[in-house]
Amino acid sequence: xxxxxxxxxxxxxxxxxxxxxxxxxxxxxxxxxxxxxxxxxxxxxxxxxxxxxxxxxxxxxxxxxxxxxxxxxxxxxxxxxxxxxxxxxxxxxxxxxxxxxxxxxxxxxxxxxxxxxxxxxxxxxxxxxxxxxxxxxxxxxxxxxxxxxxxxxxxxxxxxxxxxxxxxxxxxxxxxxxxxxxxxxxxxxxxxxxxxxxxxxxxxxxxxxxxxxxxxxxxxxxxxxxxxxxxxxxxxxxxxxxxxxxxxxxxxxxxxxxxxxxxxxxxxxxxxxxxxxxxxxxxxxxxxxxxxxxxxxxxx
Length: 300
Hints:
Blueprint: H1 5-21, H2 32-45, H3 51-79, H4 86-108, H5 119-129, H6 141-145, E1 148-152, H7 158-163, E2 173-177, H8 187-193, E3 201-205, E4 226-228, E5 249-251, H9 261-264, E6 272-274, H10 282-291, E7 296-298
Parallel strand pairs: 1-2, 2-3, 3-4, 4-5, 5-6, 6-7
Helix pairs in contact: 1-3, 1-4, 2-3, 3-4
């Protein structure tokens, strides 16, 4: 039987990403609030230990997520006075749901499975840039409107995206990942280029031995609400994490981290802490639960 607990954790991340970069909607159906309430009910009432029920619930959440994307994007375009392109928005919605399925498939593989998060995005980027040695965004509004940016170091042309990072003005969710074999990444440089983003979510995922620490400069994002560091080789969090006082969710899963106590003890808004497959001991976990009674500590 599949262990759906880590899958649910990544599902939450992905749903939040969908909300932040929003895509497509058809006419008036259910409101966004109604859809979110229905999704919360499914997550709360499903028996995730029952594989058949879990699969059925995931399918429902996937469909509701797509509808939510639709509503958000239509609202966004209507507020901007733009014409709604249903076909294009449908394509975006299908793409993002495909992205979610790849994430879930990777987690299904267990401890040895890579998080193949950005495969479709990688193919789109290569196709778009293959005949252009100096790609430029032709619509300047793109830089203003884009709220989600994925830096996939497996993409051969990714440096071209990195070189344009300062042009983006509204990025709230930044994903730094490696969708194929892990490679080296200069996190300091990437985060420096992102320093002016109104960042609320930062995900550094799947670099294994190539990421052993996180830059101290991470505290340059005072509004950060979610930080996920899945599947790296981080053995110590930077002390500056303690300054992220808006942080609500922190995932250090699948890293040889021995302690997070010095960093999280001042994070009074922390609601979720993922520590599965780390070296954090039971005694520290008990201390954290006592110190932060409103924080849910996930050990699986």
